[in-house]
Amino acid sequence: MNPLEYPGYLTSLVDRLLFAPRDCRWLEIARSVNPDDIGISISALANAASLHKKTHAYALWGIEGRHRGITGTRFNPLAAKKGDEPLVDWLGRLIKPQIDFRFRKAMIGGLKIIVLQVGHSFERPATFKGIEYIRSDDRSICIDEKSSLKQRLLDILDETPFDEEIAKDRVEGDRIGHLLDIPTWLRLRGSATTTDEKIAVEWLRKAGLIRADGRYFDITNAAALLLAKDLSQFDHLKHKIVRIVRYEGSNRRRPCEGPPHRKGYALGFAALARRIRSLLPEPPCASERIRLDAGFEAAIRELSINALVHQDFRILDDGPQVEVFDDRIEFTNPGKPSIDPARFVDSSPEYRNEALARHTRQTGIRAPWDSGLDKVIATAERLCLPPPLFEATPKGIKATLHAPRASTTMSEDEGLLACYQHACLRQLSGRTMTCASFRRRMGFENDENGRAASARILEKASAAGWIALEKTDDDRKPAWLPFWSDRRSNLEAIE
User: Fold this and answer.
1) What does pTM read for this prediction?
2) Which pLDDT tens digit goes with each residue over 125-134?
3) Half-sphere exposure (Cβ direction) of 207: Cα atoms closer than 13 Å
4) The domain 238-407 is classified under which CATH number: 1.10.3720.10, 3.30.450.20, 1.20.120.140, 3.30.565.60?
């Protein structure tokens, strides 16, 4: 049970629901235990919750419909099945997109009440078996029968970003501090602190992290994700807790997973970065250790915060993950990239979660100017590391930061990527990549064999279309640009 759900919480919830208006569209007094009817109800209730801007909608079994008297029920949803499949699993498979729903049992006067709590739909209407439903009067109907309601719902879903939606509603003011670490939030912002809980709660409200609802408050997803003392206290955010796994060697055969970082991202970010750093294998000599301490910290922080802020929070059953191997660190976050990963370095950041990004800057865990991945690439160049890799995978977006190894051991693909990224950094700083600058990046300055190797990489990168010659009148000093530059030579652009 959620620790914030005090003794008698479910009884109090049922009492409150029984006194809801008769025409309430986000409450169903349920009778049927047919799996298909329950699936239709979940779709309808999720959409009704969004339509009426509620965090949750509810269905109750064990209540007499007309007078709302408590009669009790024998329905046991956790033991019920559809065919050979548990009912809850079957429903979860057929409700799209994924909706947070759960069955709860309350005992009132010795009678059993089943409470179905359904999270609101998001981005698009919730469907059951591909059909969208909505509550109308006291029935669940196909939403196409009510075209005006459907348009209203679509407008609402389109206008509300995830981080501004409600994570927990109807929280009493004196319970906000049980859920959110307000003093730490104030300290991170550099604000004055206060021991007056009412003043602190008002500051949260003015910052847009909570909203007043009469004598209660609604906590936004941004507030929970950033400031939660324990993210598992917010049911639909429990999978957003960061997982850190250390593997022995360079494969996943021997994992060692540490304790999850349950704190909100702003509260626990410093500890998260320290934890990742502590899992790295120690470099063989003290001078190398100093170099990595100076360079790796910034890169780890940048990739960590990117994984947190840029994840797709609509994917409810997956969250950010950091995997530490002997030879690399992989940062993965759920969601498809909005742009080609090859253009991450030169593109302005496109946030799925604007409010979350804004508050990470205000709390100091992200630089106000949002320097982005060019800092990570520059670190790799400064330390002569293999190039960081950014890619789209079936699980989401993955960034890989490599441990030190000699440039001569880079694969051909790594050499081409290092060449392209170097051209990008030079372009972003108003310069071009030259033979000499690329040799420095690869650590080949005083190596005759390295000179030949770097020339081969430049030739292959140009042939593969990663780089192009700059327009110039001096063929004796060739310079290269990334493929997307508008300063390429006419010949390269035409080809």
Assistant:
1) 0.77
2) 999 999 999 9
3) 26
4) 3.30.565.60
